[in-house]
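This follows on from our talk about sequence and fold. Go ahead and set the record down below:
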Amino acid sequence: MRRSLFSAAVAAASIFAAVLPPSADAQVLELGDQTATPLVAPTCPAGVNPSQCTIVLTRVTALATFTDGTYLPTMVTKAGRIVAFTVGLSSLSSSTTTRKKDIDYLNANYGGDAQVQMTILREVKHKNKKKRKKHEFRVVAESGIFHVVQYLGSVAQLPLQKSVEVKPGDLVALTTPTWAPVLAIDLSGNFHYRQSRNHHCDTPPTVQKAQATGGDTTYDCTYGGTRPEYAATEVTYPVASNPVH
């Protein structure tokens, strides 16, 4: 069940879109949650040993590249503003005692309590072709950091205190400055994502690899059969029905 923290803002956005004349064409879009598989709070698949249950994302920025076979499901196609984002968070364990031990371990080893942040990426296109790299992105905007340990075991919709402007071609990514259990694993080949690093992809980062504003990063670590459970809510700009010349 989705736990919604997003009431007045989305309601107002929906009403705003509804009352506009058809020619204005404003929309409320869910980027990343428009495919056949809805967002979930991840769980360890049956038969997977807890030590091999890699559902926790640590100190990195994650970009969904395929969801249900849809390429770049969080790509912005219409200019507008992101007003909220949604994240699926595992409960880690059905045992209160085990969950507390897991949280204490993760807090101690990854720099603090569970945190998530929305990050807007834009592909870097160097004029000099020799400098061009595949999967190189720049952070052009980001949300504040949300502390989310109280939402473990739910799909939480988080309203932004300040909306973020996006343009066609921008990509919405999910950053975990510390840790967050947001990865659904052992899925089909129709799910892939990339991380903001280019080596030692088989082990968690030993240092902070979450991408921040001001730098360019190559996303060379790719993971098949895995989905970072996140999406973003965008309100598109209306098309002017009576342009001023």
